[in-house]
Amino acid sequence: MTAETPIQAAITGVHGHLPADVLDNETLARMVDTSDAWITERTGIKERRILKGEGLGTSHMAAEAVRGLLERTATRPQDVDLLICATTTPDFVFPSTANIVCDMVGIRNIGSFDVQAACSGFVYALTIAAQFIGTGRARKIVVVGADKMSAIIDYTDRATCVLFGDGAGAVLVERSANGQGIRDTIIRSDGAGMPHLHQKAGGSRLPPSAETVAQRLHYVHQEGASVYKFAVARMAEVAGELMTRNALTPDQVDWLVPHQANRRIIEATAERMNLPMDRVMMVIHKYGNTTAATIPLCLWDYEAKLKTGDRLILAAFGGGFTWAGAYVTWAY
Fold first, then answer.
1. Alpha-carbon torsion (19, 21, 27, 31), positive or negative
2. What would the pLDDT profile of 263-275 be if each residue is shown by its tens digit?
3. Residue 196 is among the residues annotated as catalytic for this protein
4. Judgement on whether residues 62 and 163 belong to the same structural domain of the protein
């Protein structure tokens, strides 16, 4: 989309789901060499949710978020035209998690697919949804961001295990009825960033084997310093570009909705945008980094504070590298 595109798509509802089990910093400190003070100072995280239960995958959280969304917006499953699931932790290599979620919530005979852009996935999926609404090919689209990061986290590695949690958030995207909506989006990537944040094994390049499991190659590999530097620069860059393209000054932005990667990254991004922290959505302290779910969970958590016409800047950065942003005026 560009700034000149007529507003045609809007977020008209949001719902989230979080597993019941809480993993707090004190518990982590008994599992790995860390402490509540160390984690809080470096990340801002106090606790995160973990999906427990045999055979439960990302789809189970996503389906709960979608069921709640359909109920809250009085949307019948048969009225949904498209479902897009942003996830880095699909239930299977195939079929897509979106397919499975549709089956679980009773949505039949529509298009559904996954989007893999790591932590930027939700904004990528929202951008795609806006295109389908804009062309008239769909009337009601469900976009869900969901990840079971606990499935790919090494709980002996304190550099990564303190960061991530599990969760799901879903939004309904429809044609705007009041002139508010998704005004502009930007999606970007740079594959040269892959070595700094990726999962080494499990794909076609290095399929699962006894050796890859023994070498602990199926977990998140992250080089924190490099990721921090790029994340701050790219999230601020995409937010700034959206503000420039849409003639927004910092005082006109009601809310920054940043990917919840790390409190320090969020604060640094807000500082570069000249935004005070009381206009920055923050849920990282209680949910951790839920990857593709962080932005919709922010919207869900802050929904009661949002007013029709509020100007939101969404900004995300993820492995790959990917980054993305959206300028949204709240539609309800």
1. negative
2. 999 999 999 999 9
3. no
4. yes
Q: Which domain holds residue 69?
A: 9-179
Query: Long-range contacts of range 94-101, CB-CB < 8 Å, 24 or more positions apart?
Result: 97/57, 97/58, 97/59, 97/62, 97/146, 98/144, 100/59, 100/63, 101/59, 101/62, 101/63, 101/66, 101/144
pLDDT score recorded for residue 6: 59
Which of 25, 259, 262, 298 is an active site residue? 259
For 203-245, the pLDDT digits (tens) are 999 999 999 999 999 999 999 888 989 999 999 999 999 999 9
8 A C-beta contact, residue 1 and residue 130: yes
Output the pLDDT for position 7.
65
User: Residue 205's Cα: distance from chain center in Å?
Assistant: 26
Q: Which residues of the chain carry a pLDDT beneath 70?
A: 1-7
Q: 320 — alpha (psi -120 to 50), left (phi > 0) or beta?
A: left
Q: How far is CA 74 from the centre of its chain?
A: 24
- The total of structural domains in the chain comes to 2
Concerning whether 119 is annotated as a catalytic residue, the answer is: yes
17 catalytic, yes or no?
A: no
Last residue of a domain, one of 179, 196, 220: 179
Measured in degrees and rounded to the nearest 5, phi and psi for residue 20 equal: -75, -30
Q: Out of 25, 85, 99, 119, pick the active-site residue.
A: 119
Q: Return d(Cα 235, Cα 260) in angstroms, integer.
A: 11
Sheet holding 255-258, edge to edge: 182-189, 322-329, 311-318, 255-258
pLDDT at 224: 82
End position of a domain, from candidates 179, 205, 227: 179
The CA distance from 301 to 142, in Å, is 18
User: pLDDT value at position 98?
Assistant: 98
